[in-house]
Amino acid sequence: MVSATTENAPRLAELLPAAQGKGADELLNAFLTWVRGQGLELYPAQEEAILELMAGKHLVLGTPTGSGKSLVALAVHFKALCEGGRAFYTSPIKALASEKFFALCRELGAERVGMLTGDASINPKAPIICCTAEILANLALREGRHARVDYAVLDEFHYYGDRDRGIAWQIPLLELNDTRFVLMSATLGDTTELRARLAARTGQEVAWVHNRDRPVPLDFAYRETPLHETVTHLVAHALAPIYLVSFSQREAADAAQSLSSLDLSSKEEKKALAAALRGFRFDTAYGKDVQRLVRQGLAVHHAGMLPKYRLLVERLAQQGLLKVVSGTDTLGVGVNVPIRTVLFSRLYKYDGERTRLLSAREFHQIAGRAGRKGFDARGSVVCQAPEHVIENKLLDQKAERDGRKPKANKKRPPTEGYVHYDAQTFARLIAAEPEPLRSRFQVNHNLLMNVLSRELSHGRRDGGYRRLIDLIAKSDESEANQRRHRRSAAALFRALERARVIERTRPEWDPRTYVRVRPELQRDFSLHHTLSLFLVEAIADLDPEGESYALDALSLVEAIVEDPQVILFRQVDKLKGERLAELKAAGVEYEERIAELDKVVHPQPNAEAILTRFAAFAEAHPWVGHEALLPKSIARDMLERYASFNDYVHEYGLQRSEGVLLRYLSGVYKVLVQTVPDEHKTAALLDAMAFLRTALAHVDDSLVREWETLLVGDEEHPEAPPVAKRPELWRDSRVFHARLRAEVHRLVKELASGRFEAAGAAIWQPAEPDGEGAWSAERLGAELAPLLAEHGRLRFDHQARLSEHTLIRELGPRRWELKQALLGGEGESTWALVAEIDLSEPDAADGPLLRLQRFER
Question: What pLDDT score was predicted for residue 625?
Fold first, then answer.
């Protein structure tokens, strides 16, 4: 797709009124006219793909990165809107879904586009929806062919063969038989069987458009120089921006740090970076490192970072301000980060089970990021030789310069976590075709729950267990695997029935018996985690009146969620340090100290009770098999000490893994909301949930802020309905009051710690820093001074957080007053904090709710 500069080119949205209701030929002509108006010339594969789509066929599109697959997807969305239909775009990651969301909003109008990612729900009834693949898969399971999905674009379709997530790309193909599909990827491999099955299931023709012609050809080079020399060479030869690929978050961060001494950017470029960073808040523990690196034109990008920092790196890269982005292989998924050179740090990775060479698909997926269309005549792919090879070569060169013979005893390769590769390995990967896609169907609670959640009504009798058996039979699995899946499904079904999550029912209008999810469970009830059913059963055994009920329930939740290894390792390190100091002080000998340190494990509250309960559960449910749970305390530890997110990061040295902590706490919160039945949510547990929600909300709201700037107020369409429905927090008074208590407790904690700037961030502030109602750090300190003079200090502990110290009363429609008793050092209460909550404005619920009024005696 060749681009020319065209000023004042119309948005595609402007063509919609005239094109709606037209035939396929007219839609094709309208779209192609718009393309020409943009100054674009279609590549042959793009033109062929768009013709096939307009003819009503499914499309499997296998063309290289940068060959304009996004424009083909845009044609699908245009066709759907003109026909009055509904189209879904899916991706493997939230970042790519949100990127496409913003792009489609700009081109088609924000009122026509929505986004669903599991964490964000924006304009969910829009005719165009951007979502993660799992969202569409769940919709297909719940609704089947009744789902309103006329078109579905499954991007990065090579994930169909992913061991853990491939089922999300297969389910829509099995269930949405009336949908037209577009399956896109640069690394599909042989799709013959896949296309045949899709055609057989839907009765519709499947077009196969593919080629290997890249718009920007690639050069390949194998380097045996140290990393800093390779990078310096590439920058000096105008081969930046460089995407330095590592295969772990730690390696990516270490690589960036090792390059920080290089002078990569000119003075003018550094000035441009400084201007681009103006106003951005690097307000977390890792923020200073991120800021220091990006000011040099160097950045880190991986899932362990907070989303707002990743978004910043992507934005700076799109503006051409970065020389090197040191990231993990996830950047190869498709996020728009323009790169001229891809630099592989090595050609092997640990895949969760073993260390192995990259597959041809993985290699080509990452290498394909090289070459910026419209900027580069060629892209470059460079591979670093193994470190020991580079070091040995340097030693040989030094010996030659010194007139000595090279040493016979060379540095040997690592004995663990290493797979040999060389220039020939690199050449084989370059020439290799992507491997055939392999089905990864699996039966789990989430699959069963979604199928059983199908609504039973007149004319819709396709739900129930029989539907699951039919789904397994339709899957792309072998007969042997299908038999195994049926056995698993039967075991899971019996377990859900025993746990009273599902029940049998006989509708009045049908003599047959059906199975459904119990209607008393919350609408968004989910058993997403493998051991969710254990949680449901175990939490029912807890005493809701017990003093530690909320903490014990939190421990059960933490036991079933994925283990954040980096955080658990840091907890162990801290405990070992404390234990070592104790042993040294006690005069214990070295050997005994080491033996004692080997016994140290991360905190595991209630471990014995949880593991005993789980052993009984596993015995009663043979399907548990090799699944195991691990008691841990991260969210509970934070709650018990009311530690803030930043406090926890500093305490355990998690600066490089802030995103891991954020993702873990988000996962815990989501399980509390969706998997713990509402009947078990006591006031204390709601307070714990509100604490987590408040902690998360104040860490990173980059996504909300970004889409607000685009969607709030579409000047060209002032009559358009609001794009995002604001949550009506006050509807459930128990949840609403719990959130208010969590926010005021956070505020009091910051005040008690003397962190008045952080306290200011915990309350509502006007847009103008000096506007009415503004509370600066100086003002907070001055207003609190009389209390401190009288009591010596402000107390914040478990007693200060008792609900009896918080009074909430309604002032009027969507307005409340909150009065929080403030305790002095001895526990006396003669002062109070008074705040108002005003939710009458449409965006009032998106930030801190408390509008501080005064401190009073």
Answer: 60
Half-sphere exposure in the Cβ direction for 855 (13 Å, CA): 20
Identify residue 431 by its one-letter amino acid code: A
CB atoms within 10 A of CB 367: 27
Q: How far apart are CA 167 and CA 147, in angstroms?
A: 18
What does the block give as tokens for 440? 């990864």
Structure tokens at 92: 């493997």
All residues at 6 or more sequence positions from 24 whose CB lies less than 8 Å from its CB, including other chains: 54, 55, 56
- 216 and 372 in contact (C-beta within 8 Å)? yes
Q: Based on C-alpha coordinates, what's the Rg of the chain?
A: 29
Q: What is the CB neighbour count within 10 angstroms for residue 237?
A: 10
Cα 207 from Cα 59, distance rounded (Å): 5
Residues 64 and 678: their CA atoms lie apart, in Å, by 49
Residue of 647, 843, 828, 849 lying closest to 765 (CA atoms): 849
Per-residue pLDDT tens over the stretch 230-275: 999 999 999 999 999 999 988 999 999 999 999 999 999 999 999 9
Residue 161 has pLDDT above 60, yes or no: yes
Contact 796, 642 (CB under 8 A): yes
Neighbours of 51 (CB within 10 A): 16
Side chain identity, residue 274: A
**What was the pLDDT predicted at 818?**
96
Which H or E run includes 836? strand 829-838
Which residue type does 514 have?
Y
Residues forming beta bridges with residue 795, ordered by sequence position: 823
d(Cα 384, Cα 386) in Å, to the nearest integer? Answer: 6
Res. 710: pLDDT tops 50:
no
What does DSSP say about strands 113-116 and 151-154: parallel, antiparallel, or unpaired? Answer: unpaired
β-sheet bridge partners, residue 674: none
**CA 165 and chain centroid, separation:** 14
C-alpha to C-alpha distance for 744 and 822, rounded to whole angstroms: 11
Taking residues 346-351, report their average pLDDT.
Answer: 93
**845 CB-contact burial (10 Å; exposed 0-12 / middle 13-18 / buried 19+):** middle
516-524, long-range: CB < 8 A, 24+ apart:
516/452, 516/453, 516/456, 516/463, 516/464, 517/449, 517/452, 517/453, 520/677, 520/679, 521/677, 521/678, 522/674, 522/677, 522/678, 524/673, 524/674
Alpha-carbon gap, residue 206 to 560, rounded angstroms: 42
Q: Which of 195, 126, 120, 119 is nearest to 157 (CA)?
A: 195
Only one residue has tokens 């090792």, namely: 258
Contact criterion met (CB below 8 Å) for 302 and 249: yes
